[in-house]
Amino acid sequence: MSRAANSTFMAKAETVQRRWWHIDATEQSVGRLAVILANILRGKHRPDFTPHCDTGDFVVVTNVDKLVFTGDKLNSKIYQTYSGYAGGQRRVTAKQMMASHPDRVLIQAVKRMIPRTPLGRQQITKLKIFSGSAHDHTAQQPQPFPLS
User: Fold this and answer.
1) pTM > 0.85
2) Each residue of 52-65: pLDDT tens digit?
3) Which CATH number does the domain 19-69+102-133 belong to among 3.90.1180.10, 3.40.50.1000, 3.10.20.310, 3.40.50.2000?
4) Which helix (H) or strand (E) holds 90?
5) Which of 42, 44, 73, 136 has the most other CB atoms within 10 Å of its CB?
């Protein structure tokens, strides 16, 4: 297959070879890890990245309960939800959220870094998060992702 010298390569969803990555979140900063995860899920780490096509890989993140916040964010950061009804506002600190649902902290950080489109919703489904060191995806043989 020959292409013209100035043609642009466009990836197609059916031809993308997806890989499985494993990331250990022990002692990792929430925001810095979320940026790395969002880039992997979107496929921006690959040379065939195409913005309108899902070229991203699968990511298995373990030890999410050992994430750290920089500065005083553990006590000062507020996660807020609102149901739309009177009295339906809920405010939870990062410390309370890490104690009860540490996976939601990382999911919410990554979800806010990918596009809010149908493609972004498809890409976030490739993120698999586990609080402990064990995970359900050993059959896929995820490779360790270099974080440095």
Assistant:
1) yes
2) 999 999 999 999 99
3) 3.90.1180.10
4) strand 89-93
5) 42
